[in-house]
Design brief:
four-stranded mixed sheet, 36 strands, 706 residues, mainly beta, 5 helices, 22-stranded antiparallel β-barrel
């Protein structure tokens, strides 16, 4: 869908008069208003506590792990419609592609299990990053998190905390238009968020969030259409109990896009960033439904129970001529005819008890049961036919030149159950000690068949593992603490992954050592976390000399991470992040010795970011005026660890700016992303897929309150 420039003019002409009318209707006693409140006072970027690190409310200064929180204030200032718009402002993050889990943390890649919703797995979309309309905040735990959250890679956990019904009646409507200035491509997005009480005593609450987006990419023939709906209700029978029931529906239809490609692995050889190599009409479509139920009961001052359930039914389909092989001499790209339909289901439970006891040593104990069922179905309707070459600079599209040669049909039924326990002990006012342990067992059934030949395969395997974490915090003062911690993770190998004896390979493992210092001023205006980390991912399966898989590979990373948040005045605040990461392939099979010592894909040594907002301390035309800047830097990165396949992506600096105008019942924002129109690349795979970052984009948004 192509959106004309008239969308911008139409919406702009609608918003501007509304803003001026509301400004004129503001009361004239601005001076009197200044005497009872501070004009321009900001809501902070900093959150003092979170529940993700320990699955219990936890003061950051007393927690021996690194966490970063993207709260609603940051999301709103950035006008982040999807989570990937905010990832660059998280220390240690690097994007690696366009999918929901296309990122690395501290040099390690993420699995879909590494991004969860309210502490449980299962995303309603896979091809794109989650939309933010239903997100209250995102709590990011760095490093292995298996003790509390089950199997995953050791990168860390991205926990999306969703919006819940509120007692106070409030309805807001958001409208945003955007334009890529050089390409002339536009987009429009609108949403509504309404919440309040359904009965007189406020014991039953509701929330309804709905929206849609239609946008044209800066890349030729690429567009996206998204619709979402998030209804929810809450029941509060008394002050100690709360039951939340949430439904969700997400649908995304987008043009399939594998990005650019290089000649001789040289990034300088890529074509213009608008160049498109798939066929017109190729698509990646996502659709998902979900239901989540959460119940909490504070039985007493020392005992509480939490029960959560999440179910997701998801399907996606892609039909495209995908980038397959680069022909360096001819400067052409061989494409593969791929048509694939996938289904996934997630049905997961987490139930735990929090219990506090002790007089001399105060214990805060958490014991829980966690697990569920996951179904995967991958149907390759077309996969094996290759050809339909296109040239680097001037691709001549071939149309349907390749036959639909089907591939395999595969399905997995995975059942996982885990039990965990955690004890945080306050030895005295200075010392806090944490110990945690978990045992998991996963059983899986695998079936594979082929549409073009009589060949079937089925396997059934069971794996188990135990993981542990521990930490010590010493509070030097009430505002300064030092800590050290250890954490483990595990991730079962895909079924089937057999050794030379025909046995299923042991799970991948991860471990992290971390030490750091934290500072948090009592009024929350200055907060700092400086951490050293050492993360190792082991038991990586590679084909050994026998021709069978062996647990040979290992990826190591260590570095230093800084997160600083400050609010020097009521009207000015900023957040600064920096990470140095030294990551490498530390063990590999002899046939892959060209990877030894190389960094894994998308593990830059240096990343840095800054976001800052300033509000003018006096009213202008009866409203608040503010501005923000955002700066992002990434060092050079590689698209793969193998020397013969990888492409070096150059470092980049990107500057974003925004201007705000707010009156009593409305907020307006003008965001300019990539002010300098810097060309950069933020994802890819080998030399066949290189994803360019967004060029300069201007967005005009309005939020109206009713």
């Amino acid at each position: 869908m192509k959106l004309s420039y008239s969308y911008l003019l139409l919406l702009g002409s609608a918003i501007l008069p509304t803003a001026l009318v509301q400004a004129e209707n503001q009361p004239d006693n601005a001076t009197e208003l200044d005497t009872v409140q501070v004009v321009g006072e900001q809501q902070p970027y900093f959150e003092k506590s979170n529940r993700t690190a320990l699955k219990m409310e936890s003061d950051d200064l007393k927690t021996p792990f690194s966490t970063t929180i993207i709260n609603s204030v940051i999301l709103e200032d950035l006008k982040a419609n999807t989570l990937e718009d905010a990832y660059a402002y998280v220390p240690g993050f690097s994007r690696s592609g366009t999918g929901a889990n296309s990122f690395t943390i501290r040099g390690h890649s993420a699995d879909l299990q590494n991004i969860q919703v309210d502490g449980l797995p299962g995303l309603a979309s896979r091809f794109g990053s989650p939309v933010t309309a239903n997100i209250e905040r995102v709590e990011i735990l760095k490093g292995p998190a298996s003790v509390l959250y089950g199997w995953m890679d050791p990168a860390g956990l991205v926990n999306i905390v969703t919006k819940k019904p509120q007692a106070e009646q409030n309805t807001s409507v958001d409208v945003t238009v955007q334009r890529y200035t050089d390409q002339g491509q536009n987009g429009i997005e609108g949403s509504i968020d309404s919440t309040g009480a359904l009965n007189a005593d406020g014991s039953v609450l509701y929330r309804l969030i709905a929206g849609a987006e239609a946008s044209d990419s800066f890349r030729d023939d690429v567009d996206t259409d998204t619709q979402y709906l998030y209804p929810s209700v809450s029941w509060l029978p008394d002050a100690q109990s709360r039951l939340d029931i949430q439904l969700e529906y997400t649908k995304q239809n987008r043009s399939a896009d594998n990005g650019l490609f290089t000649i001789n692995n040289d990034i300088d050889s890529v074509a213009d960033i608008e160049t498109y190599y798939q066929e017109k009409g190729d698509f990646d479509n996502d659709e998902g439904y979900g239901v989540a139920i959460a119940y909490r009961n504070d039985i007493s001052d020392s005992l509480a129970t939490n029960i959560k359930w999440r179910s997701i039914w998801h399907e996606d389909e892609r039909d495209l001529y995908e980038n397959n092989k680069v022909n360096d001499a001819e400067q052409t790209l061989t494409r593969r005819n791929r048509h694939q339909y996938n289904e996934r289901q997630y049905h997961f439970l987490d139930a735990n008890l929090e219990y506090q006891f002790g007089s001399v040593i105060q214990h805060q104990v958490l014991v829980g049961l966690n697990g569920g069922y996951e179904y995967r179905q991958y149907d390759r309707l077309a996969f094996d036919t290759k050809g339909a070459e296109v040239s680097l600079q001037n691709p001549n599209y071939t149309g349907a030149a390749l036959e639909d040669d089907p591939g395999s049909f595969r399905q997995w039924d995975l059942n996982t159950v885990g039990v965990y326990a955690l004890d945080r002990m306050a030895i005295n006012e200075q010392w806090t000690v944490l110990l945690g342990a978990r045992y998991d067992q996963q059983s899986g059934d695998y079936e594979e068949s082929f549409k073009d030949k009589d060949d079937e395969r089925s396997e059934n395997e069971t794996v188990s593992d135990s993981t542990y974490n521990a930490g010590v915090v010493y509070s030097i003062t009430p505002e300064v603490s030092v800590y050290t911690s250890y954490a483990e993770s595990f991730n079962p190998q895909a079924i089937p992954s057999f050794d030379v004896n025909g046995d299923q390979l042991d799970p991948e493992t991860g471990e992290q050592w971390e030490a750091g210092i934290k500072f948090g001023r009592h009024d929350g205006r200055l907060n700092m976390n400086l951490a050293y980390f050492d993360v190792v991912k082991g038991n990586i399966a590679e084909e050994g000399s026998s021709g069978e898989d062996e647990l040979i590979g290992e990826i190591s990373s260590e570095g230093v991470e800084l997160n600083l948040q400050a609010q020097p005045t009521d009207t000015l605040q900023f957040q600064l992040g920096y990470t140095y990461t030294d990551a490498e392939i530390s063990k590999a099979e002899e046939k892959r010795d060209d990877t030894l010592g190389n960094p894994p894909g998308f593990a830059p040594q240096n990343t840095a970011s800054l976001i800052s907002r300033y509000n003018h301390p006096q009213l202008v035309l009866g409203g608040l005026v503010g501005a923000s800047i955002g700066w992002k830097y990434e060092d050079k990165r590689f698209t793969d660890e193998e020397s013969k396949k990888r492409v070096e992506l150059p470092s980049y600096n990107v500057l974003d700016m925004a201007f705000y105008y707010e009156v009593e019942n409305a907020k307006y924002a003008l965001n300019i992303d990539n002010v300098g129109n810097t060309e950069f690349f933020n994802g890819g795979s080998n030399d066949t897929r290189i994803y360019p970052g967004d060029p300069r984009k201007v967005s005009l948004s309005a939020r109206f309150y009713f």
